[in-house]
Amino acid sequence: MRKIALLTSGGDAPGMNACIRAIVLTCLRYGIEVYGYRHGYNGLLDQEYLNLRAKNVLNIIQRGGTILRSARCLTFKSDDAAKIAAKNLDILGIDALMVIGGDGSFRGAKHLSNHWGGQVIGLPGTIDNDIYGTDATIGYYTAIETALSSIDKVRDTADAFERIFLIEVMGRHAGFIGLNAAIASAADQIMVPELQRSCEDELQNIINHIDAVKRRRGTSSYIVVITENLWPEGVTKLAETLTEKTQIECRPVILGHVQRGGSPVSQDRVLATKMGAFAVESAMAGETGVMITEVNQQVQCAPLEVSWSKQKELDPYLVKIQQDLFDLLKRP
Question: In percent, how much of the chain has pLDDT > 70?
Answer without folding.
Answer: 96
